[in-house]
Amino acid sequence: MEHVAEHHPDHESPHTSQHVPEQRITLRIDGTDHELTVDTRTTLLDALRERAGNTSPKKGCDHGQCGSCTVLLDGRRHLTCLALAVAYDGAEIVTAAGLAGPADEGDLHPVQQAFITHDGFQCGYCTPGQVCSAVGMLEEAGRGAPSHVTADLEADVDLTDEEIRERMSGNLCRCGAYAGILGAIRESAGR
Amino acid sequence: MRPLTYAAPATAAEAVSAVRGDPQARFLGGGTNLVDHLKLGVSTPGRLVDISRLPLDTVEQTEAGVRIGTNVRNSDLAAHPLLRSGWPGISRALLAGASGQIRNQATTGGNLLQRTRCVYFQDVTTPCNKREPGSGCSALEGYGRYNAVLGASEACVATHPSDLAVALTALDAVVVVLGSDGERRVPMADLHTLPGHHPEIETTLSHGELITAVELPATPLARRSTYVKTRDRASYAFALVSVAAALTLDDDGAVADIALAWGGVAHKPWRAARAEAALRGRRPDESAIAAAVEEELREAAFGPDTEYKRPLLRGATTEALSRLLGGLDGKPGGTSEQEGAR
Question: In chain B, which residues have their Cβ closer than 8 Å to the Cβ of A64?
Fold first, then answer.
């Protein structure tokens, strides 16, 4: 597998002699190992975008409210804005850019294709987060995890529209493409 | 953001001594609240001691009930078969909080120690006694919709934001705490404090004490528990008020045992002991529930911005108990068509 090492820029500011702690970490991003030396304050989102050059996860609110920075982290949907990169040394991250596997036709994951089919976006800014969140959500539902609107906590999950809406509530779309997003996920869920 | 050092000790004991010995150090769990506070300048530690990868991440059945490691993620706890069957109110509370992504990240112990979402606490340009002792309380004269109505003080009217903590309080959870002198056990009801003159103090933990687990006793009451949350939108918002409830009836349909705790009303999860006492031994009909809620609110202080919480508490408490009367737990926000309560 490809391996990318990166030289870090000089953080020394001319205005201060304050020591800025740094740490060396390895992140596996879309199948490639990245060795990065980061200021300990760097968020995972900034490490992905500004240091590893993967601009698929988007910075929307940067406060965990919009979901546009969602990736799959060690297989689960995860925000990257409320995460310090140093705390995720060794993590395996899949962004929307790396979702498609070798078996996927035209380099699109089936959920990505469904978003196109159902017109599940307008400006597209929230889309990488929406898609990663949908993939993670479908996995959660597939192993029977209940949600706030699940009537019987111990029954099998039936991914009704109400269930999909609730489970996707951490991803906002300011264009309001929710109807298309719902359709895309409904199809991805096999309904 | 202030420069900070980061360490991830291999054991809980090492983490405790690392924080204990440095007033500028803080534990880092899932980070969903603390990392935001680093960005906002609400929290300015010089050192983070990451405990999120310590192997305190299992849910274990014990003789008395269940023991939940502090690093069990909110999503995993909510979905755990033991919790779903034995403590449905805990699962419901977790599922009512945050988003799918955040529940995958947030930890059990971290959830209990999250800070208030009072808008002034999070805005470093405004006075706040909790963030900066002695600076004043902006919420007293400002935006008061989220303010506390029970147990508040002139120094602070903030509410505790956790849903999980409310359910744990109702179901008599015990928090296991590791300090430099070893382990101790703190009942949930004694974990959080009322603001008084020191709203900057929020728990009875001392600096460097680490929550390592939460224990829940298995009881017939816990099996018949639920959680009702009211909020400004259908999902992904903090509670205006919330109710954790558990109920068993005797053969005459009167309350045999009951547990009630409220969220969104105080600086800590509020155990509604007066309301419980008012309902015990009585048939829990609508008027009895309303009277019990009023009894609990006898010393409440409402203002124009918070008056709405009175009928909301009455409605949410009635809804929670009705759900339990209509079946085991029930469907949030809808009418339950499940089997009878007994």
Answer: 32, 36, 102
